[in-house]
Amino acid sequence: MFLGTIIGVYIMSVLRAGLPSMDLQSQYQTFFTGVVVLGAVLLDIYRTKRATEVRVLAPSAKFKAEVMEKILRNSRLQVPLMLRLKSVN
């Protein structure tokens, strides 16, 4: 959150310093600054909405997760057994 604030302040200071150097009239400077602020607000709304939405797994994705979990569980059990067999031989 703090990093986003610093980036936002940096962008606004670049706009405040850069737009007058382009010899834009003050109403256009205000317009472009407003467009940037509006874009930031829309991006924040989109990010918040995506973070709070519930994701439903499709049956195929659920099956894939279960299979991967079984594979990992079996591989953890077999590795020590394989190491014991190699140390005996």
Observed structural traits:
single chain; 89 residues; mainly alpha; 3 helices
Question: What does this entry look like structurally?
Answer:
The chain has 89 residues and is mainly alpha-helical. The chain has helices at residues 2-21, 26-52, 59-88. It is 87% helix and 0% strand. α1 runs antiparallel to α2. The longest helix has 30 residues, at 59-88. The protein is elongated and about 70 Å long.
| Succession of helices and strands | HHH
Quickly count the helices: 3
Largest sheet: none
Poorly predicted sequence stretches spanning 5 or more consecutive residues = none
Structural class: mainly alpha
Total strand count, please?
Answer: 0
Give the % helix.
over 70%
The portion of residues forming beta strands comes to under 5%
Radius of gyration: 27 Å
Average residue-wise pLDDT: 82
Distance from first to last alpha carbon: 57 Å
Give a brief description.
The chain is built from three helices and no strands.
SSE inventory with pairings:
Layout: H1 2-21, H2 26-52, H3 59-88
